[in-house]
Design brief:
Layout: E1 2-6, H1 10-21, E2 25-29, H2 33-40, E3 45-46, H3 50-56, E4 63-66, H4 73-80, E5 89-92, H5 98-109, E6 114-121, H6 123-129, E7 131-136, H7 139-144, H8 146-152, E8 153-162, H9 166-194, H10 202-209, H11 218-230, H12 246-257, H13 262-276, H14 280-293
Parallel strand pairs: 1-2, 1-4, 2-3, 4-5, 5-6, 7-8
Antiparallel strand pairs: 6-7
Helix pairs in contact: 1-6, 9-12, 9-13, 9-14, 10-11, 11-14, 12-13
Protein name: 6-phosphogluconate dehydrogenase (Decarboxylating)
Family: Belongs to the 6-phosphogluconate dehydrogenase family.
Domain 6-phosphogluconate dehydrogenase C-terminal: 167-298
């Protein structure tokens, strides 16, 4: 399948490689020419403009996947819209607010263009080796491209969850849950660290917890890896836990629905507090973010 692909960051670049591995033909565009050249060497078709990208996709029923930060999506759509035709499909695979996805879908629908919002989970490793895809949009459009979604995901790791906005709503809640789980690990390992009489080796404990315990999880394994790489004191890792907003969005949305979210709310508050008062708990959150998402472990020093 020929696919227009915009955005070659940590997620987008790995996704393009997976597409190539499964026999798809991505036609790529990014603002940085060196990045485009890198994936051309892998087999993708590079372009220097959105106009060139669309021409290379042909004239009918074209698919364009946008993989850029959510704040940039509307700008990309503004440039793309004059180049799109009735029957084309646009996918937003970033972490956009679900309300924006609903509006973008309506905007494109007026022109006969289909839209799917896809929450992608699994980090850069998932993008390369098989992700979890939470999809929102028309069932007919989903069915049309389901082979692609199966190729990009782990086994049983893709599903249409509802109409426009449903994919990004689910991803927002997923990330809210992630906030709570990460904060629980941060608090627990801080307690272990403070019990000096037992002199716990936190890497050893994390490794043990990841071997058949009730809290065994991918986050647990990433924390184990973080202690291995940075040491049990997490030297060089910031104690200020940054976030990308989805936890806060989850809390705000839950409040509007009358749903209590004490755990997620507390985890968001903990990150905000850590920005003013760096802590070991902040370090634990940051090292997990680094291991699963490739995020800078100490952005303030950059």
């Amino acid at each position: 399948m020929r696919i227009g692909f915009i955005g070659l960051g940590k997620m987008g670049g790995n996704m393009v490689e997976r597409m190539l591995e499964h026999g798809h033909r991505p036609v790529i565009f990014a603002r940085t020419k060196a990045t485009v050249r890198r994936y051309v060497k892998c087999g993708a078709t590079g372009t220097e403009s959105l106009s060139e990208m669309m021409k290379r996709l042909g004239t009918k029923n074209r698919l364009v996947w946008i993989m850029v930060p959510h704040a940039a999506v509307d700008g990309v759509l503004d440039e793309l819209l004059p180049l799109l035709k009735r029957g084309d499909t646009v996918i937003d695979g970033g972490n956009s607010p679900w309300t924006r996805s609903v509006k973008r879908s309506a905007r494109l629908k007026k022109r006969g263009i289909a839209f799917l919002d896809i929450g992608v989970s699994g980090g850069p490793g998932g993008a390369r080796n098989g992700a979890c895809l939470m999809i929102g949009g028309p069932a007919s459009t989903y069915r049309k491209f389901r082979r692609l979604f199966k190729d990009l995901s782990v086994k049983d790791g893709e599903a249409l969850l509802g109409p426009a906005g449903a994919g990004h709503f689910a991803k927002m809640v997923h990330n809210g849950i992630e906030y709570g789980m990460m904060q629980a690990f941060a608090e627990g390992f801080d307690v272990l660290r403070k019990k000096s009489a037992f002199r716990y080796d936190l890497h050893q404990v994390a490794r043990l917890f990841s071997r058949g315990s009730v809290v065994t999880s991918r986050l647990n394994s990433w924390l184990e890896d973080g202690f291995k790489v940075f040491g049990t004191g997490l030297k060089g890792v910031s104690g200020s836990a940054v976030g990308t907003g989805e936890g806060k969005w989850t809390v705000q949305t839950a409040k509007s629905l009358g749903v209590p979210t004490p755990v997620i709310s507390a985890s968001v508050a903990a990150r905000v507090k850590s920005m003013k008062d760096p802590s070991f708990q902040g370090k634990v959150v940051m090292v997990m973010r680094n291991r699963f998402g490739g995020h800078d472990p100490n952005p303030k020093k950059r």
